[in-house]
């Protein structure tokens, strides 16, 4: 990874709507070079996807999110990977992490309502062979996500013109 | 009663700030994009704010020594040595002030008086001339030019020196031009200053904000330390404008004299600000570097933008201002800023507000988000292109 690639990634992470031309000016590069560099990083999977961070509270949606701690009896020869793969294929599952500590997998699940999530845990996740136990935590409120403070109270307080 | 008669002649003599006048106009317009703000758009780093909150919880709400907390003076001296190789004693060669602003005022009042001339390198921050006048001295403008990258040229300085010249006040990296002085440039200036036995007030509040070469201080040029009052502060580098913490470094006798004015007018800088400054200097370097990197990226974006629009713009090597030349539009700078505001709701500051040499330029601060810069450039472009065409045609006729 070159320093230039890192800088481009930082700018895109900050705002994925920034244009290649703007990046080129900001980093003193040719537009074509930046376009190529971004294309390459998209192609090799360094840049996985461009998305928006949404403050869903503003959308008045019924969306429910749970974080589920899963204890696992790992299979010989496959470790945790085989089970993790089975779990992350479920469309409700947003992320899966292997954890150190008192449980093994952390699974983040999103659903339209409580019932749907309860169904997921009882009918799909728990019955999986090798799942020893699950503990489900519902998210009540989001304060910060992906490094972004939702509902940030810090506004630009500066006067419009100053010395 | 005729109130005007009661006002002091010095106060009557100084004009109200040109920025203020333009400010009123901008405030009356709704929904403007402002490139007119002379302060960071970052909020003071959280750990700095937190340290001040903590000190308040501990009940630290009292006066400090007149020259500032010893701990802070020691920290500033360490920082200045480490960052710019400037060596000053925390005991008697530094004082903490209420912003660089106060340091400018008391430095001028300490050294200048009736009959003295103070050379002011322009375009510059708006307070130098009025503060010199309030001290009773006569400000003398020393212009800098775009063709010299807004550096101070030795022959221009020399041509303005008279037997009454007492001191020169200058600011590099410069507000509003973004011009800087490199060591070789400063050496030539220092020779003239020594030859004419002048003092220097060197406002270096933007010293950290340089892009490319590291800042050079005139106090580091041979034989200059004793002649220099170095002024700086944390407003710009650490995004701490509201805390009002600045400082002056100079010969012990000058500091002692400045301290007399400070002690009888201000007493001391606020303790909450001093505590915050301590934290910023100790642990704020990493966040400062991040801010500088962002300024640098926006600087390139805005300069390129102006060049594409067709406004000539020298590449600012410091501070956070671009200073494009708008003469190609056929407007003078005040008119340009007013029309631009009316037509496109973009606020920029007319260059002549900053004194001689600023005529025909506008100051555009890039201490604002890149998306605002992009939007502003687009609007300025739409406004400027027809003007440039029209002006070209008129000149052809
Ligand atoms: C060149 C210069 N000096 C001094 C100041 C004032 O700084 P402070 O906030 O430390 O009083 C400013 C603020 O815009 C400035 O641009």
Automatic annotation (TrEMBL), chain A:
Pfam family, one: AsnC_trans_reg
SMART domains named among the record's database cross-references: HTH_ASNC
Example of a GO MF term: sequence-specific DNA binding
Keyword tags: DNA-binding, Transcription, Transcription regulation
InterPro entries (UniProt xref): AsnC-type_HTH_dom (IPR000485), Dimeric_a/b-barrel (IPR011008), HTH-Siroheme_Decarb (IPR050684), Tscrpt_reg_AsnC-like (IPR019888), Tscrpt_reg_AsnC/Lrp_C (IPR019887), WH-like_DNA-bd_sf (IPR036388), WH_DNA-bd_sf (IPR036390)
Domain HTH asnC-type: 1-81
The UniProt record lists the keyword Transcription regulation: yes
Name used for this protein in its record: AsnC family transcriptional regulator
Record organism: Desulfuribacillus alkaliarsenatis
Classification of source organism: Bacteria, Bacillati, Bacillota, Desulfuribacillia, Desulfuribacillales
From TrEMBL, chain B:
Entry EC number(s): 2.6.1.-
Keywords on record: Aminotransferase, Pyridoxal phosphate, Transferase
Highest taxon of source: Bacteria
Cofactor(s) needed: pyridoxal 5'-phosphate
GO BP annotations, alphabetical order: amino acid metabolic process
Residue ranges of domain Aminotransferase class I/classII large in the record: 31-380
Keyword Transcription regulation carried by entry: no
Keyword flag Transferase: yes
GO molecular function, one term: transaminase activity
InterPro entries associated with the record: Aminotransferase_I/II_large (IPR004839), AspAT/PAT-like (IPR050596), NHTrfase_class1_PyrdxlP-BS (IPR004838), PyrdxlP-dep_Trfase (IPR015424), PyrdxlP-dep_Trfase_major (IPR015421), PyrdxlP-dep_Trfase_small (IPR015422)
Pfam families (alphabetical): Aminotran_1_2
Family: Belongs to the class-I pyridoxal-phosphate-dependent aminotransferase family.
Protein known as: Aminotransferase
């Amino acid at each position: 990874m070159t320093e230039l690639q890192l800088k481009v990634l930082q700018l895109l992470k900050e705002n994925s709507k920034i244009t290649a031309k703007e990046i080129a000016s900001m980093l003193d590069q040719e537009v074509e070079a930046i376009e190529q560099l971004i294309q390459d990083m998209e192609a090799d999977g360094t840049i996985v996807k461009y998305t928006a961070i949404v403050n869903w509270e503003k959308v008045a949606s019924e969306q429910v999110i749970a974080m589920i701690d899963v204890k696992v009896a790992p299979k010989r020869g496959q470790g945790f990977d085989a089970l993790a793969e089975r779990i992350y294929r479920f469309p409700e599952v947003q992320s899966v992490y292997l954890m150190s500590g008192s449980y093994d997998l952390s699974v983040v699940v999103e659903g339209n309502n409580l019932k749907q999530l309860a169904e997921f845990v009882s009918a799909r996740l728990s019955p999986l062979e090798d799942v020893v136990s699950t503990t489900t935590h519902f998210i009540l409120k989001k304060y910060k996500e992906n490094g972004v403070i939702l509902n940030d109270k810090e506004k630009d307080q500066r006067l419009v013109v100053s010395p | 009663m005729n109130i005007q008669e009661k006002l002091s002649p010095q106060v009557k003599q100084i004009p109200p700030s040109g920025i203020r006048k333009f400010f009123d106009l901008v405030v009356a317009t709704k929904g403007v994009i402002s490139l007119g703000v002379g302060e960071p758009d970052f909020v003071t780093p959280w750990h700095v704010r937190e340290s001040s909150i903590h000190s308040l919880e501990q009940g630290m709400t009292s006066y400090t020594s007149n020259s500032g907390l010893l701990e802070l003076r020691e920290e500033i001296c360490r920082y200045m040595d480490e960052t710019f190789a400037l060596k000053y004693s925390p005991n008697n060669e530094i004082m903490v002030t209420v912003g660089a602003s106060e340091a400018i005022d008391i430095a001028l009042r300490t050294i200048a008086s009736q009959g003295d001339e103070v050379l002011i390198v322009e375009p510059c921050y708006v307070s130098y001339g009025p503060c010199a006048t309030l001290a009773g001295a006569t400000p003398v403008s020393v212009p800098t030019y775009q063709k010299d990258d807004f550096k101070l040229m030795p022959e221009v300085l020399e041509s303005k020196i008279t037997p009454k010249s007492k001191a020169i006040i200058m600011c590099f990296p410069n507000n509003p031009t973004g011009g800087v002085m490199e060591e070789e440039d400063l050496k030539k200036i220092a020779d003239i200053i020594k030859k004419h036995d002048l003092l220097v007030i060197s406002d270096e509040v933007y010293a950290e904000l340089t892009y490319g070469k590291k800042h050079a201080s005139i106090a580091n040029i041979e034989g200059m330390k004793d002649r220099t009052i170095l002024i700086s502060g944390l407003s710009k580098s650490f995004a701490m404008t509201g805390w009002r913490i600045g400082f002056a470094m100079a010969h012990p006798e000058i500091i002692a004299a400045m301290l007399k004015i400070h002690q009888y007018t201000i007493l001391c800088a606020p303790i909450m600000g001093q505590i915050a400054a301590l934290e910023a200097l100790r642990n704020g370097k990493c966040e400062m570097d991040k801010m500088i990197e962002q300024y640098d990226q926006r600087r390139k974006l805005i300069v390129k933008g102006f060049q594409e629009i067709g406004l000539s713009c020298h590449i600012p090597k410091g501070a956070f201002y671009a200073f494009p030349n708008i003469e190609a539009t056929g407007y003078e700078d005040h008119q340009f800023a007013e029309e631009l505001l009316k037509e496109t709701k973009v606020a920029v500051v007319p260059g002549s507000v900053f004194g001689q040499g600023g005529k025909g330029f506008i100051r555009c601060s890039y201490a604002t988000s890149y998306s605002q810069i992009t939007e502003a450039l687009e609007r300025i472009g739409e406004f400027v292109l027809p003007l440039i065409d029209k002006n070209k045609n008129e000149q052809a006729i």
